[in-house]
Amino acid sequence: MKKTIIFILLAVCLLSCSTELERCARHTQKTLIEQEKKAEYLTEKIITSLGVNSFDSLWSITQQEQDILIYVFDRKGMVYWSDNWLAGQQIFLKNYNVWFYQRFDNAHCVCRWEKAGNYNILTVIPVATAYSISNHQLRNTFLHPFKKYSNIGITTISHENSLRIYNDDQSPLFSLEVIDSKLSENQEEFTHLAESFSYQTLVEQDDTNNKHSRGFYFYFILELILFAAIIIFGIIGLIRNKGWKNMRLRVKFQYATITLILFMSVYVFAITAVSARDRYSNQQRQSLERKTKYIQKALQDMYFWNLNLSQKNTAGLSIDLRDMSFAYETDIHVYDMQGTLVGTSAPMLFDKGLMSKHIAPEPFFTGKSTMMQYEYIGDMRYLAAYTEFINGNYEQIGYIAVPLFISTEAIDQATDDFLSKLLLPNLLVLVLTFIVSFIVARSMTRPLSVIADHMRRLKIGQKADRLEYNNHDELGELVMRYNEMVDQLEISSEKLARSEREGAWRTMARQIAHEINNPLTPMKLTIQQLQRLQQAGDERFEAYFKKSTTMLIEQIDNLSKIAQSFSQFAKMPEVITTEVDIARKLSTVIALFRNNQSQTPIRYIGAESGVMAKADEEQISQVFNNIIKNALQAIENKEDGDIIVILKQENNNVEISISDNGYGIPEQIQEKIFLPNFTTKNTGMGLGLAISKNIVEGSGGTIRFTTSNKGTTFYITLKI
Same domain for 107 and 42? Predict the structure, then answer.
């Protein structure tokens, strides 16, 4: 069983490796063809430039495609190179205009020779690194723009487990195979490299010792988390309150203050960290610049009388540079006027093919003999300072290169030490700011909340409490204005109540006078007529007396009804709400009204009983009486008069609709229909709908109507 499982696992591994190898081969083949086309186009431009102005514009042309390297040779040797990272001890001229595979000391490349007059141009497409030693800084992998595959390597030997890569003319170049990605551990080579000052990171087997705790990173992350949390809660608050304008003032102030504080804290801390890093980085650059000047002066004194750097006078140069490297704690490289290495304090780097023996092209070909630039060995980025090698007559006889690895770990450590001093005060200020913002927000909005609470409880006609606030700020002024408003409102409410009472009595008095005066006039005329007939001894006196007394009795009864109606409205009992069987009450009232004199049909749609609602059991029937009576009067002169009463339950309400097919209520009087002294009929006091409205609203319900020229419908809604 175990053997079967092992076999399956091996098969899966081989299948996955094969799949990855196929993907790598397809991408490499496609990218290589594209790079070859770019390289051919670049070479044509270089050939044209060499025919016109020699080397003047080569630098600007070759920098357009930094993934493609250009080398120009004449009969004496190499006269131009676009980069100095590719290391090769010997380069042989092969067939022109044919792409071929070339293994350099530190890279696998595809190359092509071109003829341009007296010059031979070597165009190089680097495919993958090929360092003789490897560790975490020197990993052999594919180069840009080829996709990186850590476990795929290049070989010139084709076998059944490899995949061949071809040229665009289908000629084979190299093969890809799965390799062991384990780093090499050549202790002897690492020992020699460890003697270097500037490239010591190349010999580090791992970076676990370089990792250290950075408190300010955790603080920075904490602030970012808080900032993100504030934004999330702010978005939730905006959604819940449907916009910024609807949020409470205290929440707005706290959210805006905390957000601003966090933003400024993150911004200031980030700026401080970046500034500190730049500061320490600049310190290292300045230190490198000073060292370069000291080394230049020391070499000038040592080679004061030399007119050039030849093999004879540079035999001991490497030994001198080695001694100087210990004194200045840095590596030193010296190049002659042709840009070729003539001495170094770290010969192992060049012997193992980690670096080219030619100077960087920019300080050599652009005239910037004194400059600094970043260079690479594998994944290691270092700063190199270049300056002129001068003799006693201040004539240039070569170039000096002083590399320096600007340690990111050292900069991080220095930045950490600096920012750690600010960490505790910054945290304290941040916490105190949060606390103060909450306290200030509450103290600022508390009077507003108190004012809002008092205004919510404020009712016309009731005495309102004054607020106490002793501060003389804007809120104090607001409280003062509120107290003034309360005083003025109390005075105004008293005046309004008095005015309303007086207006009500005046209106009631006018109505009573009007209603009483109407029957008094015909009564007076009748009595005067009786007096005249009696004095004249008219025979008609007896007949007129009988008729007049009957009319006078009717008018007196009418006056009695007027007095009774006003007495009923003035002494209307308080509404007492209980559960009432509305269906039974309504059906009883309808049964009474069906025996009307005009024989108008009253149709009822709804339950006869069992529908309960909250109402006054004694007074609710009066509401139905008033509205049905009004409906009958609205269709009094109509032959096809019809009244429909519907009772139904909706949600937690009972709705009664009473509809007639009369002529409707005119628009100009619709707003006055529920006023207690308003009527459109020749008889009655206009109190029926006013009394009905008081009863329904006192029970917690509502009453409304809709009307048109086809009829009117009153809706009474009561709660269950």
Answer: yes
